[in-house]
Fold these 2 entries.
Entry 1:
Amino acid sequence: MDPETGGKIAVAEAARNVVVSGAKPLAITDCLNFGNPEKPEIFWQLEKAADGMSEACTILDAPVIGGNVSLYNETNGTAIYPTPTIGLVGLVEDLSHVTTQDAKRAGDFVYLIGESLTEFGGSELQKMVEGRIFGKAPAIDLKVEAQRQQQILEAIKGGFVASAHDVAEGGVAVALAEKAFGKGLGIEASLSGSATTALFSESQSRFVLTVSPDKAQAFEQVVADAKRIGTVTDTGTLTIKSEDGTIWIQDSVEALRTAWKGAIPCLLKSEA
C-alpha cells in the first residue's frame, strides 16, 4: 500500500464527513500510528504519509494545528498497518445547514456523485475475501475532491439536500444501507458496471445524497456530476439492481441494520 496516498485519503475522508454534515472544513489534528521508525521502511512510511497529508491539507484548505505520534507499535517484530488518524473540525455557519445521513422522505431522489472504479486495495471486501490487505490504494485526485466538496456544501447551504453521506468502507452498497437505517425507509437503486465494482468498490471522492423532487433541478445545476440512481421508498427494503434490472441486493432494512449493529458481538462470539 502507498502510504502517501493513504495520507491523502485520511485527510480527504475526514473532510468529507465534515462537509456532508453541512460544515466547512477548517483545520485538522492528527495521531500518526506506525511501527518502529528506526527501521528504514517504517520511517519511509511515516515520511510519505506526512507528505500526502500535507498536500491534502493544502488543497482542501484545512491546515494541521496539532497532533501527536504513536510509534513502535509492533507485535513480534511485525508493525501495525500505517495508520494516520485524522480529526477535523468544521464550521457550521447556520444551524439550518446541519445535515444528517438518514434518508428523510419516501419519494426523494437518490444521487451518486463520483465514479466507481475497480479499486479494492485495502478495502473491506479484500480483507473479507482474501484475509489480508495488499495492492494499490484507490487513486485520489485532490482537485476533484475539493471541487466536489465545495459543490456539495454549496448545495446544502442552498437548501437543496435532504440527506448526505460519504461513500467509504464497504462502498456504495453499505452507504445506501446506512442511509436507510435512521427512519426505516427503503431505497430502490440501479447501478452501472459489474456487480462487485458497483456495490463494493472503495473509489474516492464519492457521495450519496437524497434530494426532494421539487429541488432536483436546482441541485443538479450546483453539483455538476451528480447522477440520479434511485428513489427513497416506504417499503422498508433495500433493493439494488443492475441497469438491466437484475437484482443484486434485496433485503429488509431491519435485517441489514441488525447485521450492521451486531457485527462486533458476532465476531467476538465466533472467536470465543
Entry 2:
Amino acid sequence: MAFDFGALFSSQSQPLLGLDLSTSGVKLVELSGSEANGFRLERYAIEPLPKGVITDGNIENLEAVSEAVKRAWKKSGTKIKNVAMALPSAAVITKKIILPAGLTEEALELQVESEANQYIPFALEEVALDFSVIGQSPNSPEDIEVLLAASRREKVEDRVAVAQSAGMKAVVMDIESFAARSIAERIIRQMPDEGEGQIIALFSVGAHTTTISVTLNGQGIYEREQAFGGAQLTQDIARTYGLSVDEAETKKRSGDLPENYERDLLQPFADTIALEVTRALQFFFTSTPYSRVDQILLAGGCAVIPGLVDVVGTRTQAATSILNPFKGMDMGSSIRDKQARLDAPSLLVATGLAMRRSA
C-alpha cells in the first residue's frame, strides 16, 4: 500500500516551508529551530488570490495558484523549495481504529487497508491513504489505536502539482485542522499549568468558512465548520462603496476606505462574528456533555478587527484573546514586528505546517 499523502504524520528534519492555500490567498512561512530549542520566524509572505481560483478547497485554476505561490516565494526571500502543504478537513476522512499490538509493518499496512474499505466510500485505487499509530488503546493493553486518513487522490495531486509548477517539492501533506491544532497546543502549553483542566475553543475565521476546534487537556473534544467568513465583509464593502469584489478585498487589507467604514461596516461585522461564535458555542453545549468554555482563541484574518476580542468576550462571558502563532518565537532580521502581529492570526495553518520541520 502506497502512502500517497507523503509523510503525512511524520516530521522532516530538512528545511521546510509551510505553504497554505486558502480561498483568499497563498500563505508561506519559514521557521528555523525546533520545539525543544525554540522556534525562530525567519520569513513569511502572503499573496492574495483572485475570487474563484480556489473554491471550497478545490483548486479551480492551477496556473493562477502556482503563479501566486511563485510570487509569495519570491516576496519572502527564502531559498528553501521543500514544502509542507495541507488538505481542507472536509476533503479528508479520518477515523481512529483499534488493531492488535505487535503486528509487523507489512501486516499493519494490510490491516489498515482492510479496515479502510469499511469507512471510505470510494474505490481504494482512487484514494490517497495514510495512517499513524497513536499508541496503546486506553481500553485494551493488547491493542493499539491507529489514526487512518484518506482523501480522493486528485485532491492530493492538485496540491502537489501546484508546488511542482511553482518550482517546489511537496514532501509533507497534512490536514488543515491538524496543522492549526498543533499551533493551538503550542500556545496552550505556554498558559499557566499548561492549560490543564481548561476547555479551550479555537475559532479560525477564514474567507468563507469558520472552523471551530475545542480541546481539553491536549485532546480534541469537538470540531465543526460553519459557512461564515470575512468574504461577507468584503461583499458589504463592495456594495456600499460601488467597488468590485477584488477592489474591495484590496482596500479591506490596506485600510484605504472612507472614514465611516469602521462605524458603519467594520463594527457591525464584529458584532456579527460575536453572534456566530455564540451560536457555535450553543451548538457545542447542546451536542456534547460539556456546558462551559473557559477560553476562546480567535484566529484568521478577521481576528485583528478592532474591538473584536472585547465584543466576543462580553457576549460569551469567556476569556477571549487573539491566537498569535508566533508567540514565544524569536524574530528573524527581516521580520517587521508590527506587521507580523497584524498578519499572524491568518498564518495559523502555514505556521503549523512549517513546524513539521522539527523532529
